[in-house]
Design brief:
The protein is α/β, with parallel strands linked by helices. 37% of the residues lie in helices and 15% in strands. The protein has a single domain (3-278), classed as Metal-dependent hydrolases (TIM Barrel, Alpha-Beta Barrel). The protein contains ten helices and ten strands. It has an eight-stranded parallel beta sheet with strand order 1-2-3-4-7-8-9-10. A two-stranded antiparallel ribbon has the order 5-6. The longest helix has 19 residues, at 152-170. The model has no long low-confidence stretch (mean pLDDT 97). Bound molecules: zinc ion (2 copies).
């Protein structure tokens, strides 16, 4: 069955309207499509849904769901950025939007000493956040230098701690790309199999296991040529399989053709005998 539950549109940093994603999915025989725009944030940025457009996004997904009901199962979700001081409670977004599922992700890491300042001055947040995603590793390096004094272990630890707090306190339906901190590292500051790094990965995996969240297998780094592995990495998926953690393959599509880029994820999961592969997250509402 073809499905994808990590899908963006031009409401956020995706490149086309919702309808173009839907039409492509129908044409290519998808049975299910879940939208997961980047959640609104209270400061000026170029990637998230604008705060005053959030309900339009939710309503348009629902209208398409009804219009295409006989051809494609469309579902309303959101990729919610968990950012201490800016967004620590997913409920208002879930309730006002009537969301059916959430993907909880960390892209923005505040310097720990700045969290209270950000809380009271949210519109200035951009200056205090380390953006770990995006096409430019120079931006990653600059943020690491400016906010964490270039101390990669401190920055990486803050990333995993933020993921852990999100998983414990918000229990997102799907945990999004929880080791993406490696993407812009590009094997320069550290290697994935260094013990201190693996300890952090395994701690988060244990938490996902204990809370019963689903984890995505995100393929975007591979087809964008930014990374050579899935998020999480193949070795981490092998470990997750021993714990029976449910996974769902996500293309994290920003363009219609991205929907097809599963990059051998299903084949890999089959090859290692992954026991718990889902095609649909549990849905509410
Ligand atoms: Zn993301
Ligand atoms: Zn995404």
């Amino acid at each position: 069955m073809l499905s994808n539950y990590h899908t963006h549109s031009n409401y956020c940093d995706g490149k086309v309207p919702l309808r173009e994603m839907v039409d492509f999915a129908v044409t290519h025989g998808f049975e299910e499509l879940g939208f997961s725009g980047h959640s609104p944030l209270p400061y000026l940025n170029t990637f998230s849904i604008k705060q005053d457009r959030y309900l339009d996004y939710c309503n348009e997904v629902r209208a398409l769901r009804d219009e295409y009901a006989d051809r494609l199962k469309i579902h309303l979700g959101l990729e919610i950025d968990y950012v201490p001081g800016l967004c620590e409670d997913f409920r208002p977004l879930i309730e006002t939007g009537g969301l059916e599922y959430t993907i909880g992700s960390v892209h923005l890491i505040p310097q720990p000493e700045s969290i209270e300042y950000i809380r009271s001055h949210p519109t200035e947040a951009a200056d205090y956040l380390w953006m770990i995603d995006g096409a430019k590793y120079e931006r990653y390096d600059e943020g690491l230098q400016r906010l964490f004094g270039g101390d990669i272990k401190r920055g990486v630890r803050a990333f995993f701690e933020q993921n852990n707090r999100m998983i414990e306190s918000q229990r997102p339906t799907i945990v999004g790309h929880f080791d993406k901190i490696v993407m812009n590292n590009k094997d320069r500051y550290f290697h994935y199999d260094e013990k201190w790094f693996l300890d952090l990965v395994y701690e988060t995996v244990q938490l996902i296991h204990e809370t019963g969240c689903i984890c995505e297998v995100n393929t975007r780094g591979i087809y964008k040529g930014r990374h050579y592995d899935f998020y999480p990495a193949r070795q981490t998926l092998r470990h997750m399989n021993t714990l029976g953690i449910p996974v769902i393959v996500s293309t994290d599509a920003h363009l219609p053709e991205d929907l097809l880029h599963t990059e051998g994820a299903y084949e890999f999961l089959e090859e290692i005998g992954y026991r718990n592969v889902l095609f649909r997250p549990p849905l509410t509402a």
